[in-house]
Amino acid sequence: MRLIKTIVRPNKVDDVRDALEKLSIPGMTVTEVRGHGRQKGHTAIYRGKEYNVSLLPKVEIEVVVPEAVVDEVVQAITGAARTGEIGDGRIFVLPVERAYNIRTGERDI
Amino acid sequence: VTVSFSSTEFRTMAAGRRESDDPAAGLGWAARFAAARAEYAADARAGRGGRAAQVRYAAAMDAVVRALSADAAPAGPVVVCAVGGYGRRTLCLHSDIDLLIVFRGAIGAAEERFLSRLLQPLWDLKLTLGHHVRELAELGRLDDRNPEFLMALNDLRLLAGDVALFDAVRVAVQAMEAAHERPLVEALLALIRDRHAGFNDTLYQLEPDLKNAPGGLRDIGAVRLLRALAREALAGRTRPDGERLDEAEEFLLRLRSWLHVESGRDMNVLTHDHQERVAALLAGDAGDSRQGVEALMSRYFLHARTVARALDRTRAAAAPAPSAPPEAVTSDLLVGSDGVAFRDPSTAAAQPSLWLAAFETALAKGQPVSDQVRGVIQEHVHRYTAEYFVATPEARRRLRALLQPAPGLSARLAEMLDCGLLGAIFPEFERIHCRVIRDFYHKYTVDEHTLLAIRSLEALWHPVSAGRARFGSILREVHAPELLTLALLYHDVGKWRDDHHAAESVRLAGPMLARLRITGAGRQTVEFLIRHHLEMSQVAFRRDFGDPETVAAFAAIVGSEEMLKMLCLLTLADIDAVAPGTLTPWKEDLLWRLYVDAYNHLTLRYADELIQKDQADRAQVLADRPDDLSERELARFLDGLPRRYLRVFGHSAIYRHVRLARGLLPDEVHATLERRDDIWELTVAALDKPYLFSNIAGVLSYFGMNIHRGQAMTTPDHLALDVFEFSDEEGFVRQNPGAAEEIARLLRAAVSGARDVARLLEGRERGARERRRRLGPTIVRVDNAHSRKYTVVEILADDAPGLLFRISRALSDQACDLDLVLISTEGHRAIDVLHVTKHGRKLDEDDQAALERELERTLEAAYETH
After folding, report:
1. Is residue B745 scored above 50 in pLDDT?
2. Could you give the 3-state DSSP secondary structure of residue B306?
3. How far does the CA of residue A88 sit from the closest CA of chain B (Å)?
4. Contact B586/A34, CB-based, under 8 Å?
5. I want to staple B50 with a disulfide (CB 3.0 to 4.6 A). Which of B82, B250, B521, B777 is the partner?
6. Do A11 and B544 count as a contact with CB atoms less than 8 A apart?
7. Backbone angles phi, psi at B744, to 5 degrees
């Protein structure tokens, strides 16, 4: 199993979720985060005064999927979250060693 | 149940009842008890597990305890009593059986054998016991380590035993309560506080604990106990909630009975799952399960609110009396220990203007409105119509002033709701009273959500974080914040229906706006805010507003920066009131970024967006035109003006402007002066020429006017239209009947060049410079990026007499044409945005630098002293 950790624009969450649902990915975790990559924030101006917005609001989406569908999931997320502009986000794929069901205490991976 | 028998009659009593009254005669006590439990469980499952069923079940339990007590055969005088909930006969299937067993003498081996024979069979029945064993001598002493036990004693009830000993127990308990009334009341108040703190002090729980949550069964018990303990403090107080408290108890008992039976344990939390299952049973034939749950929970909140308010009133009355005497505020009102009160309640009952005055005073003094005031209003409010409360201009003005989002407003509105006054003035709001909308976001009933949204808005006066302080700064700039309160009050009233609530809310706001005589721009503002109250969160959280097109589209919907500010504040407050934690700093940031982007679009880019011939609102202005305006004249006036013009001015203002611009000759000026409350509005039309704007601004400064807001625009035909809103700081207009003509005369002289405004202002400016203190930094920003046609100059500076005159004069001195101007103020700070050109083009880099230097020099010079 693999943990796919994705950072996307806030307005792309619904698109990514829809894309993952089409692949029958059963669950996901969505977290409000802030950060920057190469985008490194931007300068905003309000009433003549400039200020630097260094950490931009983003959304982190995490899903755990079988290794066999990783490429398909990555492709779906990329397609849903891409605008072609700087700041579209990142996808990280990590191995999952074990997983437990808290209610039952059973190990399911 | 009256029990009177001696300790020697235990066995006789048990046998006698078995043979004479018991329907299950012939069965043993265990079988009879099992039958009683089965009967109670059947009632509970059918939704009939209220007080009557619980009393029957408690009687069955009484019979068991009596039979066991008789079988246990005490060696000496003993009494077995029910206390707590069992004492009150509110006993659910898995409730604790609270017993007090008192021996006259010392507890020895024989007494312990009795206890074992009494209690062991109860444990064998798998009942949970809360038993207290005492010697009589112990009961007279206050045991403040166990306040719950002291409270439970108030419901002491004899089950079996020596009647003389029971009398002695009663005397001891009574004496202890009488001697320690105040510590007992304080212990109870502390217990309530601690219990409520565990629920974040709110009764509006999505999955409420029927027993322990605020507004639950324990609170009903607390009301009754406080009233019993603090008899003297509560003597003579009205108790308008008695019947409603009984209804609430019946409702909660039925739910709790059902929960115990269905869950098979002492379960008091009404989970979502339970709500769905019990809804069909208790909420009648309400449609689908969602509607059934919403109806059930609406009833729950209605009852819980009744309980919570009864407890509030009782707590306030039972609290220690303050040492300070009531403070007289007016001839009719005073501020006492529990808030603002009427001096003469019987007179006030027939004077609803005093009711509003009580709330005005409470807001001004930062006090609640007393139980007495709410009681009077509650008793008499049904006599009046909604129109009655806003029948005169003064009444309407006072109501609007009351709705300014100041600290304490939401608490006062909650009190108005509680006593029926809010529903009387705004009957449309009644439709969402305790209305539950079940989704995964909202935690509160719709009316409570609304009041919390208003609380969130008023909290911006004292923001808790730098993030919130940003929004607080825009609240200070809003021109008519009471319209924001009205919009919030009505934004969800349409939720009495299940679909399209925004449109329904607008429809319901219509009669209210008509009653309050809010017309024109004010009406449009409230209707817009209600209709679009979800728009900004949609764009901020679901669309890519990094795309300028998205921002442009949103800005086009909003239309003006004033509307943007109000919509932003409404959105913030609305999200904050959904549930704790919904408005995260992350969401605040997104909302703020959208606000800034849209604000910049509306103030820095609006000049490029001109009124188009196919624009719907242009067509509407043309279609609605009065007979004295031709389509050609109107179209010629509009075309070439920025789109913004149609958004910030209503139709009647536009027609006035067209008439004002008729027949203008070079060096002429046409002007009108109008008053709206404390604000004056000067509208000036003239053919554009150098120094025109600065001369007009200078004339207003000369007469001591403080300019708050304004805008100026120029048409392609060189018609300049300037609108200023100002306050008459020195009372010139107020004190001089011919003031309007005198201002017009000086305007004509200044525009024609007959009078030199700079010279007129010299003395006034010198005085101002000598008095001036720096309050904030001066910012001048000149840019060519935002607009295709104009150089945009943004200025933030301390507001000062003649500031606008100096700025605009400096621009004219640099040979710049001032094409569009937006003027606003935030407290003592002036915020001006000016669109300028030089010889019909944007300024080049050299000109920009020169202009920036000149403006900075001009603004700094204002601080010099001579």
Report:
1. yes
2. helix
3. 11
4. yes
5. B250
6. yes
7. -60, -40
